[in-house]
Amino acid sequence: MPLVRISLPQETPPSDVATVSLAVHQALVATFNVPEPDRFQAIHRHSQQELVCSAEFLGIRHSPHVVFVQISCSLGRSLDMKKALYAKIARDIALASSFKAEDVIINLLETSRENWSFGLGIAQYAI
Questions:
Q1: Which one of 18, 38, 53, 61 is CB 3.0 to 4.6 Å from 66, fit for a cystine?
Q2: Residue 52: domain span
Q3: What is the distance between the alpha carbons of residues 23 and 101, in angstroms, rounded to a whole number?
Q4: Is residue 107, in this structure, part of any structural domain at all?
Q5: What residues contact residue 88 under an 8 Å CB cut-off, 6+ apart?
């Protein structure tokens, strides 16, 4: 039940947008055991002034050609699962698009299942 927000440079070609979207979803399926049809994403393109990333942080150099991936999901994944997710997303995006692994910035937000509704105004996972 992840909700994914992907932010990319305005000039990102449609093929790269689709590649990034699919890579993130496939990584969630492979590492977080997310069901294949559980795909909810909002993809946003930004001008250079609206997508800000430090040129270097924690010893990693970033280019202006960055992609931000923010994943909201339920609690319960182990640290190893999270590390596997981050690695797979960065690797797969770099292998299949114009983005470098160094330029894939990922943020994971965890929330209780009761904080989700998948339609009809119902908290489907509330106990």
A1: 53
A2: 3-115
A3: 12
A4: yes
A5: 26, 27, 30, 31
* CA dist 16 → 12, 25, 46, 93, 100 (Å): 6, 14, 14, 9, 12
The number of domains in the chain is 1
Q: CB burial class (10 A; 0-12, 13-18, 19+) of residue 26?
A: middle
User: 39-86, pLDDT tens digit by residue?
Assistant: 999 999 999 999 999 999 999 999 999 999 999 999 999 999 999 999
Q: b vs e for 95-125, b when ≥16 Cβ sit within 10 Å of the residue's Cβ?
A: eebbbbeebbbbeeeeeeeeebeeeeeeeee
| Distance separating alpha carbons of residues 34 and 89, to the nearest angstrom | 14
Q: What is the pTM (predicted TM-score) of this model?
A: 0.92
Q: Read off the pLDDT of residues 11-41 as tens digits, 9 standing for 90 and up.
A: 999 999 999 999 999 999 999 999 999 999 9
